[in-house]
Specification:
9 helices, Non-functional pseudokinase ZED1-like, three-stranded antiparallel β-sheet, alpha+beta, six-stranded mixed β-sheet, 359 residues
Length: 359
């Protein structure tokens, strides 16, 4: 009996370890199967991807010291084999979750590893209930924090235009460089970071969805960030390439104004002075009342040539039109941004007609 008493803790510990190992194996095979299926569906034949390392749960936990140093939502700083890395690990799944979009995030990120404006993924861990992603480390700042009143760093006009061009290049890549176009669905400033060299990096591709072959829209559950969602997507559950254009329009307005511009499900913007109005009407009101300063244009960049500010604002408003058919394609948006950068804004592209009167 005494011997049994001495062995009991050991037996219980062994049983717990076996249970933990069984759970890791189950997660590994479940997540691995989902990852393989997703990789096959997004396979870009003929294009070489950077090989990803499969980390063990023990390696991830050890490298992050038990997820001690958080550097952002679900992001943790780590050190593996004397190399710094970033680990993105979500909380456990909710019982009602039907899809694990983290798997898609791995596949899209790996397909875009060579893009200079995408945070480089180097591996993953399948042994957690929700897959952990491992990125190349870089000291960074979230874009939205750079517009905080307490932030000492000032984003010049030139830098803001460069950010817009770089982010547009990532969205355009999704729309044109995959076997079928891929829609991002969640373009917000919180998914955009600037590394220590000031280079823009996008991450978080878990909301991406491919268009079926030969189709221009796909129906799916509403996913994304409230305030950035395409009103047509909200009404119909149909998401299109123009849904990304809408979100990009709000992103441009954020760069121009220095603050988040969010709209409701009807595509209207709430203002303290005028209540709910369309962005186009709000811009017109601001122009008429000489209130663009600090409403739609950051006072810190008002010294910029007015024609450039005008072109940038009109482009943003065109992208954020309520009806998808009225929005330009991403390729035209990218071209217009290049023109604005060069100061070639005497004539707008055919799809960029002036939406507001600005003398």
């Amino acid at each position: 009996m005494n011997n049994l008493g001495k062995k009991l803790p050991f037996l219980l510990s062994k049983k717990e370890n076996k249970k933990e190992n069984n759970e890791k194996s189950l997660h590994y095979f479940t997540n691995g199967s989902a990852l393989l299926k997703e990789q096959l569906s997004f396979c870009n034949y003929g294009q070489q991807k950077i090989p990803l390392r499969s980390f063990t749960a023990e390696e991830i936990i050890t490298s992050t010291n038990g997820f001690q140093e958080s550097v952002g939502p679900y992001l943790y700083k780590g050190n593996f084999n004397e190399k710094k890395l970033l680990v993105k690990k979500y909380e456990r799944k909710k019982k009602m979750d039907r899809h694990d979009h983290v798997i898609r995030d791995i596949v899209i990120s790996s397909e875009m590893s060579y893009h200079k404006n995408v945070l480089k993924i180097i591996g993953y861990c399948l042994e957690f209930e929700r897959v952990a992603l491992v990125y190349e480390y870089s000291q960074f700042s979230y874009l939205f924090k750079l517009f905080s009143p307490s932030c000492e760093n000032f984003l010049t006009w030139e830098k803001r235009v460069k950010i817009a061009i770089d982010v547009a290049s990532v969205i355009l890549y999704l729309h044109t460089e995959f076997p079928t176009p891929v829609i991002h669905r969640n373009l917000t400033s919180s998914n955009v970071i600037l590394d220590h060299n000031g280079v823009v990096k996008l991450y978080n591709f878990e909301c991406c969805i491919p268009l079926p072959i030969g189709k221009v829209k796909v129906q799916d559950d509403l996913i994304g960030t409230i305030g950035y969602l395409d009103p047509e997507y909200v009404w119909s559950s149909n998401v299109t390439l123009k849904s990304d254009v809408f979100s990009f329009g709000l992103f441009l307005l954020m760069l121009l104004s220095g603050k988040e511009i969010r709209i409701n499900h009807e595509g209207k913007y709430y203002t303290e002075d005028y209540g709910l109005v369309s962005l186009e009407n709000y811009a017109s009101i601001c122009v008429e009342n000489n209130k663009l300063d600090d409403n739609l244009i950051d006072s810190k960049i008002l010294q910029v040539e007015q024609k450039k500010l005008k072109a940038f604002l009109n482009l943003a408003l065109k992208c954020a039109q309520k009806v998808g058919e009225d929005r330009p394609n991403m390729i035209d948006v990218a071209k217009e941004l290049q023109k604005i950068k060069k100061g070639e804004v005497q004539e707008l592209l055919p799809t960029m007609e002036c939406l507001i009167a600005w003398n």
